[in-house]
Design goal:
Blueprint: E1 4-11, H1 16-21, H2 26-30, E2 36-45, E3 54-65, H3 68-77, H4 79-87, E4 90-103, E5 125-133, H5 138-153, E6 158-167, E7 171-178, H6 181-190, H7 192-203, E8 207-224
Antiparallel strand pairs: 1-3, 1-4, 2-3, 2-6, 4-8, 5-7, 5-8, 6-7
């Protein structure tokens, strides 16, 4: 059975200092959550979604579960999430099922995959990329990112895009939501900027570790709005 992924986007209007102060604390509330296989509380980038400056109004939680029942129980009962429900202006949730996953995140691939590639052209798709950047390559990475970020955020079929990360500058990721897999493929095959950056990451060894995953989007909703 494939894992279940819940991706939370927390938006703050007030309580921004509180949100920032929580970045090192989720283990206290999550380490004993039943069925939770992997999680990361993530900061986000400003501007087009992937910038040098953080967005102190937006934080994300990536959580990977054994099954939907455990994930749903967490949403209804966990003290960590209840605090965010109280403090955040809005909480958006993406329910995701992985169908392709390559690479490692902190030495493992948290997304076990046995779900088929979507055949319907109307199936919405999420893309998650994550990389740990070599310190000696960091200038090349950040010099190339603004153009790529702008191109992805403006690509046909993209309706959500955000740069996310664990450690500023060195451990970076992106999540994007697309109207269809065809839109993803069109961007990947036709974008010259995207193809150039992919080629550079390989030839110049920008990354010490990287992961790429594609998901079915089974649900996109707000816990609080």
């Amino acid at each position: 059975m494939s894992v279940v992924v819940k991706f939370f986007v927390f938006k703050f209007q007030k309580n921004k200092f509180w949100a920032f102060s929580q970045m090192g604390l989720p283990k206290k509330f999550l380490k004993k959550a039943k069925g939770l296989k992997f999680y990361r509380l993530l900061g986000t980038g400003s501007k087009t979604g992937f910038g040098l400056y953080p967005d102190f109004k937006t934080y994300c939680l990536l959580s990977v579960w054994d099954n939907s029942s455990d994930a749903d129980h967490f949403i209804k009962k966990n003290k960590f999430l209840s605090k965010y429900l109280e403090k955040a202006k809005s909480i958006r949730v993406f329910s995701l099922i992985p169908f392709q996953s390559i690479g490692r995140w902190s030495g493992i691939n948290p997304f076990s995959v046995n779900h088929p590639i979507p055949k319907s052209k109307n199936t919405k798709v999420a893309i998650l990329t994550r990389a740990r950047i070599s310190p000696i390559k960091i200038f090349r990475f950040w010099k190339s990112i603004p153009k790529a970020s702008k191109e992805i955020s403006n690509a046909k079929g993209v309706y959500f895009y955000k740069g996310i990360g664990e450690i500023p500058f060195l451990e970076q990721a992106t999540i994007s939501l697309w109207s269809s897999l065809d839109d993803v493929k069109e961007f990947a095959y036709k974008s010259k900027i995207h193809k150039t950056i992919i080629r550079k990451t390989k030839s110049e060894n920008w990354y010490l570790e990287e992961l790429f995953c594609r998901f079915h989007i089974t649900k996109d909703y707000y816990l609080k709005q």
